Amino acid sequence: MAVNGRTPLIAGNWKMNLDHLQAVAFVQKLHWALKDAKHEDDSVEVAVFPPFTDLRTVQTLIDADKIPFAFGAQDLSTHDSGAYTGEISGAFLSKLQCGYVIIGHSERRQYHHETDEVVAAKVQAALRHGLVPVICVGETLEQREESGPTAVSVAQLEVALEGVPASADIVVAYEPVWAIGTGQVASPEQAQEVCAALRAVLADKLDADAAARTRILYGGSVKSSNVASFMREPDVDGALVGGASLVVDEFAAIIRYQKHVGV
Ligand code: PGA
After folding, report:
1. In this structure, which of 84, 107, 120, 255 has its CB flanked by the most CB atoms within 10 Å?
2. Binding residues for substrate, per the UniProt record (predicted)?
3. How many whole angstroms from 82 Cα to the centroid of ligand 1?
């Protein structure tokens, strides 16, 4: 656990990669890769976010082999059940023992036209079913140039937190759109500036305790070679990793780094 009391969270967003058979091999290999590092302590929490079709398989494996990874889904429906073809209910996810669900990833906002209001409704759906929402916010390069580094993320988080009780268990992820999958990483200072602004939103919309306890992740081209620089920032409590979470040794190195710096 870090000195600030927030356990770092390293989350792997697989996006539409790895089928359920590949998922088994991946989780087993990652577990083996980390075994030597004795990661079965509370110095860092590891979570994987496979596609929906892998969740049952991943849950069964994690459960059977007592693998200390959390897991979650990449999205959920705003509705709990009914005539919504193709949608997945939070009720199903919590029955599968998902701990987390990613909400409002920029790829959902961009390709599926998810508005801030839809994101807020999904946050409510997650909380109704005992899932921890990983609320993603972040600006495009155009928006950064137009309104500065923090305005878009702050506004997105403010809407997402509508109706969220101060006691809710949530995670926030700052992912500048211009840094996702581009190799164009934000500087640690840029990440810190926005994460600090997001923590201020938590204090304002929820309360001081929620701001102190809620983990804020940075995401966007995180690799083993740069994770340390982000984790040194006081308001960055972990990473949401895309591409580098699909390579066992690289993802293990990102997780292991946490241990070695003793955060
Ligand atoms: P990336 O993706 O690490 O491949 O940039 C991050 C994300 O989209 O969560």
Report:
1. 255
2. 13-15, 181, 221, 242-243
3. 32
Does residue 137 lie in a domain region?
yes
17 in a labelled binding site: no
pLDDT tens for the chain, 263 residues: list them. 576 889 999 999 999 999 999 999 999 999 999 986 654 456 899 999 999 999 999 999 999 999 999 999 999 999 999 999 999 999 999 999 999 999 999 999 999 999 999 999 999 999 999 999 999 999 999 999 999 999 999 999 999 999 999 999 999 999 999 998 888 889 999 999 999 999 999 999 999 999 999 999 999 999 999 999 999 999 999 999 999 999 999 999 999 976 455 43
Ligand 1 neighbours (beta carbon < 6 A):
13, 175, 180-181, 219-222, 240-244
Q: Which CATH number fits the domain that encloses residue 153? A: 3.20.20.70
Cα–Cα distance for residue pair 30/239, rounded to 1 Å: 17
| Total structural domains within the chain | 1
CA-closest residue to ligand 1 atom 9? 242
Q: DSSP letters along 91-159, please?
A: HHHHHTT--EEEES-HHHHHHS---HHHHHHHHHHHHHTT-EEEEEE---HHHHHHH-SSHHHHHHHHH
Altogether, the residues listed in the chain come to a count of 263
